[in-house]
Every structure is written in structure tokens, then in C-alpha cells.
Amino acid sequence: MVQSVDGKTLAAMLVRASASLNAEKQKINELNVFPVPDGDTGTNMGLTLGTAAAELRQKAPTTAAQASALCASAMLRGARGNSGVILSLIFRGFSRAMKDKDTMDGIDLADALNAGVVAAYKAVMKPAEGTVLTVSRLAGDRAGRAAEENTVVIGCDVYAPYTYKDGTGDFIGIDVQLAHEAFGRLGYDVEFREIAWENKDKALASGEVDCIWSCFTMNEREDVYTWAGPYLYSRQVALVRADSDYTELSQLAGKRAAVQASTTAEKALLRRENPNVPEMKQVLCFSTIGEAVSALRKGYVDMVVAHESVIQSVVHGSPEKYRMLDQTLFANELGVAFEKGTHEALAARLQAVIDDMRGDGSAEAIVASYGLDAKKMLEGN
Q1: Which of 124, 127, 129, 179 has its CA 20 to 30 A from that of 266?
Q2: What is the C-alpha to C-alpha distance for residues 349 and 344, in angstroms, rounded to an integer?
Q3: The pTM is what?
């Protein structure tokens, strides 16, 4: 999947575009035979974009929004001839579409180009095809197709029933099916890639993965990532050994608990701010939920805290070993996380598809196929 660019990179791209345009301006002048064969389209466009390039070098923008706004403003002030004016109008629409964006990905670029084309067509009294308008429109269309020709790489943990592996090593699960359906409707292929959960932020920042879709809690992280969601609701509950005497959460006060590291369960048990969460003698953090369950089985801890459907999956697999305490420690909203300030356009489109899947019953069918209460997980009741 195409990675995002910041303001510095976008500015450098525009400066290089200006140099390339000037190098080829005579060829463009020779193509200028319609609607008026005055042979100056390349020259005027080069001078217009050159004004923007000079300002971008001087101001050194840091965000995509800043670079777009500087470029649009400079081009409007330095527009030469009809072609230069039209080019400045395109970038004015482009800039408006990029407002408040720190970075720009392929979808953002395509959306901004198309917004610029729409703005230019509206501003021209009698738009004529075969001009810079046509070229810009075709460029926007091609950018949109190119942005959607990529595979979305999704970071995940082994976390049944959301994301886990079948006998051949391929990822399956609720989130895997939801992701294939949702991104498929947007024209994307999907690749799930296992990551160490505590390194998920590094995986996003480095571009190793494009997003995280693996029973990822949005709560208290709303401003940390760019989100699509919530797509499901969950609650955190406790898993105990089947042969234990525990029937209430209050009985576990002063005992030992196990959680997966870098999760909301870890934060809740360590902070002790939620009245439903008993004060523990010790909280042990493990890299995977499987390791936490293993610690419970061996008697190192007295309970494991995790999402209800995950606990249910463990109990279903070994009912003679484990029981779930049917009391809510705290509720969660699950979302799809992109690195903060990136992929806003894709996240918005994904959110729209998620909403459609809720409405047409496809999300409910996927969740229900795992023997879970789909209505409860979709509505949070």
C-alpha cells in the first residue's frame, strides 16, 4: 500500500514537478493548438507553478495541509495566462480537500486531485475538453485507480476468535472475515501479518503494516490513532480455573491476575481506577493471551482478564479446565487503527462500509457464525 507523505515531502514533490514542467514546457507549447493556438500553455503553467515552488522553498511547510495551502496561494497570486489560472484553480480545490491533514496518502491525493478538478470545472464558464481540464480530470481518475490497486497489510495478534491461524497457518477469525469483506468492497486485497502486540505502534510508524485490525480497543486511545469504528463492542471479563471456588470478582481482591501486555486490561488492573476492578496483589503481563492462560492453568495466577469472546473461546475449548465469571469489569469499543494523521480518507471510506455492513446484515452474519451474540456485539447492549 502506498505510504503517506508529510508537508516536507509534498513540498519537495511540487518543487520537482515545477522543474520537470519547465524542462518540458516547449513540448507542451507545441501541443497547445486548442482552443487558441497561441503556443504558451507550457510556459504559463511553468511560470505559475514556479511561483509556488519558490515560496515552498522559502517557507518549508511541515504538514501536507500547509504545503497545499502555500502552493495554492502562491499560484493564485502568480497565475499567468488562461492555463495558469486554471492550474491555480485546480490547486485551490486541492488545498481545500487537504485542509487539516498532517500527511497525505494515495487516497488523499486522488480525492484532492478530483476536488481540484471539480473546482476548476465549476469556475470556468464554458469548460472545453481537450484542454488542461481534461488532462487534470484523467489524472485524478488514474490516481484514484492507482490508489486502489494496492493490498492493505493489516497488523494482528493471535487472538481467537478475532484473529487466529488455521491448520495451514493462514489467518482466520471474526476480524479477518470482516476485513476481507469491508476492504473488498473498497476494491482492496488484504494481507494479515502477525506482529508482537507491544510493538504495534512501531509497526504502524515504520510502514510494516497499514493498520491494526485485531480486537483493538478504542477507549482512551481516541486521539492516539486515526480510527474507523467502532465496528464491534466488547466487555472485559475474568477467566478462572474450573476447579477454583471463585464465583464473584470481589473474591479475587488481593490475588494474582494475568493480562496481555499493552492492552486496556493491563492499564485497568494497574491503575485501579474502575470500581468494578478488584485491587490485585500482583498483575503479571504476558506477550500473548495464550501465555496468560497458560499461567492460569499452571496455578501461577488466579485469573486472566480479557475480552469476553476471547474468554468464551478458551472456555469452549477446555470447559473442564476453565470458567468465565459473568461480571463486567469494563466495556470496550473495537476499532481499526491507522497511524495518527494518516489515511484519513481511507478510514472515512472504511467507516462508511462498516456502517453499510451493519445495515445489510453481513456483519451480523459473520459474528453469528462464531456462535456469539451478534446483536449484543454490534449494538453494545
Answers
A1: 179
A2: 9
A3: 0.63
Statement to judge: residues 33 and 134 lie in one domain: yes
Decide: residue 74, CB within 10 A, 0-12 exposed, 13-18 middle, 19+ buried.
Answer: buried
Tally Cβ neighbours within 10 Å of residue 338: 23
For 218-237, write each residue's pLDDT tens digit: 999 999 999 999 999 999 99
Domain that holds residue 97: 7-147
pLDDT band at 2 (very low <50, low <70, confident <90, very high): very low
Q: CA 278, 283, 289, 292 torsion: positive or negative?
A: negative
- Whether residue 104 contacts residue 9, with contact meaning beta carbons closer than 8 Å, is answered with no
Task: List helix spans (H) across the chain.
Answer: 7-23, 25-31, 41-59, 64-78, 81-97, 106-123, 132-147, 174-185, 200-206, 264-271, 289-297, 308-317, 344-360, 362-368, 374-379
Taking the C-alpha atoms of 352, 353, 358 and 364 in order, what is their torsion angle to the nearest 10 degrees?
-160
Residues 204 and 140 in one domain: no
Residues 17-73 pLDDT 10s: 999 999 999 988 888 655 666 778 899 999 999 999 999 999 999 999 999 999 999
Whose cell is 513540448? That residue is 27
pLDDT digits over 121-143, tens only?
A: 998 888 877 778 888 888 888 88
Cβ atoms of 341 and 194 closer than 8 Å: no
Number of domains in the chain: 3
105: its cell numbers: 496518502
Q: Which residues pair with 339 in a beta bridge?
A: 225
Q: Is the pLDDT of residue 99 over 80?
A: yes
Answer yes or no: are the C-beta atoms of 264 and 280 closer than 8 Å.
Answer: no
Strands 225-241 and 303-307, how do they pair? antiparallel
* Co-location of 36 and 142 in the same domain: yes
CA dihedral sign, ordered 53, 3, 61, 64:
positive
Express the helix, strand and coil content of the chain in percent, nearest 5 each: 50, 20, 30
Using alpha carbons only, what angle is made at residue 120 by residues 115 and 123, rounded to the nearest 5 degrees? 125
Calculate what percentage of the chain has a pLDDT beyond 70: 96
